[in-house]
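Journal club prep — side note

Before the paper discussion, L.F. wants everyone to see what a predicted structure for a comparable chain looks like in token form. Sequence:
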Amino acid sequence: MQRQNFSLACLHRECELNYSRLSRLTDENPCLGSSFRIKNAHHSIIDFKVIQLAKFTTTLFIRIESNKLKWLPCIELKARIYRDAKMAEVIEWCSDRTIPWALVERKGPQSRDEKWQWNIFLGELLYQALRHRRIAQVQSS
């Protein structure tokens, strides 16, 4: 079995793409508590909510639900947007796992490429949201 090499430069490129995708979906200057929902043709709902704002970062809570696929549980993740670096990355998923900051830092039963997997998942989610979105509702709390 060939071992894959996951470089930091490739991870940064994925985070830059995620930033680009998120910037097409969100406001440039969001306010704390603001949220919006995307419904697509496949009857899934993606909720985005700004849960933290700082000088150079924004943290989003993202929840994905499928009305059609009852066997699929809701997926919840947190993504941090670094506005100065123009990058976005997954920092937590399913409320119980924090993604390690460094690629080599592992706690418990995590795979070597777990940080990769969740950032690529975020990229696919955002790509599909941009491609198939039907209704976008903007709400402020």
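L.F.'s comment for the group: The first strand starts at residue 35 and ends at 40. Keep this in mind when we get to the figures.
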